[in-house]
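User: Quick sanity check before I run a bigger batch. Here is a single chain. Can you write out its predicted 3D structure?
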Amino acid sequence: MIMSCRLQVRQRSALTLLALAGVLGTACSNTAAKGDQPQGMPSIPVRIEVARSVPVSDTTDYVATLKSRDATSLMPQVEGQIIAIEVRSGDHVKRGAAVMQIDPLKQQATVTSQEQSRAAAQANLAWAKQQYDRTSALAAAGVVAQQDLDQAKSAFENAQAQLSALDAQVQEQQVQLRYYHVTAPTDGIVGDIPVRVGDRVTTSTVLTTIDKPGSLEVYVYVPAERSAQLRAGMPVEILDGGGNVVAGSRISFISPEVDNTTQTVLIKAPVANSEDKLRHLQFIRARVVWGTHEGPVVPVLAVTRLGGQYFAFIAEDQGGKLVAHQKPLRIGDMVGNDYVVLEGVKPGDKVIVSGTQYLVDGAPVAPQS
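Assistant: Done. Predicted structure follows.
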């Protein structure tokens, strides 16, 4: 009885396995049959813009320095100790205004000594003149010899020469005394004052700077290999940190020689600074405009960046249908909301600007209005 039940269970299991195998076989045959029939990939709807050609400036950006055309470094013309500072950094001063005072006591003593020597020379000249006049009268009367007259005349002329020399020395020392009063050489704004009262200064010590705002010049160092393209009057643009043009100018000076250390050529251009946004000795970006040419542009939205390389999808006709092909690009500057394309796109190419996140190379596309 038990053996009969076990046999029936085994027979039922075998029938179940056979039925399952039949179902799987049918499903596999249906799948294979469907796989044999080609299925076309549906076209992806995208928006397309035709790459247009626009005038593009050929430019190069350089790190440059702004320098004031009217900035003056104030250095003393004499040595000594500072006893007074009459201004503060940022003060507006007029030409001739007092800036600093260097201790003049020693120089004043020198001037006093020279003036006393001149007074003595004046007295000596007066006595020599009296002697000469008296001798001249006696010589005319035949009382004294001609030799005495010549000696009196020589003494008088020597006294005149000595007084003239002392006059020059006194004038020189008086001029030197004025140098102990340091004044502003021009109108402007006082810069940083690195010295303090009590400091000893020499003729090479920078006391401060006097800067007249609104008059700057940009110094740009261009590599020597591009110097042959430089021309006076070429446009130069001054850019801020965001790449926006804050001032425009034109080349006014091209150095005739190459810097031996950096192998660059210095060019200069005046910069208007009416709004006082720029500063003396400020580092900025200067863009030299070499010229213009026609070049294609593509919208920024059409460009993607992968691993440092820029790409865009171009819709190309393939067998009567549009197919997306991914093209590597070499891009330049931005013009409005477009990139200037240096390589990879030609004017007239159909650039895909939307739906690119769903595209792969070779995917069919359908343009949307």
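The mean pLDDT is 85.

User: Great, the batch can go ahead then.
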